[in-house]
Write a structure and sequence with these properties.
111 residues, alpha+beta, Alpha-Beta Plaits, two-stranded antiparallel sheet, 20% helix
């Protein structure tokens, strides 16, 4: 099992959510975050300068069986990519075990 965490533009969230559903990833958590990135220069939107490192993002946390890892990553990349600085990052970590609280079941079938 893998934990896939993605930081994406908030404006791309609906497209990413739809792409995940299309590859049968239907359960994930998300929340709004802000932080600092590598971008050092700003941009101008409707005449107002702003720092691109301070733009609000959405953080997704998804746990999948190993056979869903690649399709989940590709769905996020294809749906979140704009080609501009600040598109986000994806992190992948191993998950040792998972338990369903209601039944006490464990393992990949609980996902």
């Amino acid at each position: 099992m893998k934990k896939i965490e993605a930081i994406i533009r908030k404006s791309k969230f609906e497209a990413v959510k739809q792409a995940l559903h299309e590859v049968e990833v239907n359960f994930f958590s998300y929340w709004d975050v802000s932080g600092q990135g590598n971008e050092k220069h700003g941009s101008v939107y409707r005449g107002v300068p702003y720092k691109t490192s301070d733009i609000q993002r959405r953080w997704l946390s998804i746990v999948v069986n190993d056979d869903f890892e690649e399709r989940t990553i590709q769905a996020i990349i294809e749906s979140a990519k704009t080609g501009s600085v600040g598109d986000g990052k994806i992190f992948v970590s191993p998950i040792e075990e998972v338990y369903r609280i209601r039944t006490g079941e464990s393992g990949g079938q609980t996902l």
